Amino acid sequence: MSVPHRDDFGARIGMWLFLFTEMMLFGGLFLLYSAYRSMHPLEFHAASEELNVVLGVFNTLVLLTSSWTLALSLTAVEKGETRLAKGLLAATILLGVVFLVDKGFEWSAEFRHGIYPNGPELLKRAPGEVLFFGLYFTMTGLHGLHVLAGMTLLSVALLKLAQGEVKLGNSVFLENIGLYWHLVDVIWIFLLPLFYLAA
Amino acid sequence: MNMNYLEPQGRGAVRDWIFSTDHKRIGLLYLAVMTAMFWVAVLLGVLMRIEQLTMGPTIMTPATYNAMFTVHGVVMIFMFVVPGLPAVFGNFLLPIMIGAKDVSFPRINLLSWYFFIIGGALAVASLFLGAGAPDTGWTFYVPFSLRTGTNVSLAVFAAFLLGFSSILTGINFITTVHRMRAPGMSWHRMPLFVWALYSTAWIQVIATPVIGITLLLVILERSFGIGVFDPAKGGDPVLYQHLFWIYSHPAVYVMIVPAMGAISEIIPTFARRTIFGYKAIAYSSIAIAALGSLVWAHHMFTSGMGELANTVFSLLTFLVAVPSAIKVFNWTATLYKGSTKLEPPMLYALTFILLFSIGGLTGVMQGALALNVHLHDTYFIVGHFHYVMFGGTGFAFFAALLYWFPKMFGRTYDRRWAFAAWPPLFIGFNILYGSMLLLGLQGMPRRYFDHLPQYHVLHVAATAGSWIMVTGLAMLFTTLLRGLLKGSKAPADPWGGLTLEWTVSSPPPLENFEAIPTVDRAPYAYNPGRTS
Amino acid sequence: MTMDTSHPPAEPASYQTITTVWAALLVLTGLLVAASGVSPFWAVAAMLTLTPLKAGLVLYYFMHLKYEGPLIKGMVAIALTTLVIFIGMMFLDLAFR
Question: Domain B20-503 adopts which CATH fold?
Answer without folding.
Answer: Cytochrome C Oxidase; Chain A (1.20.210)
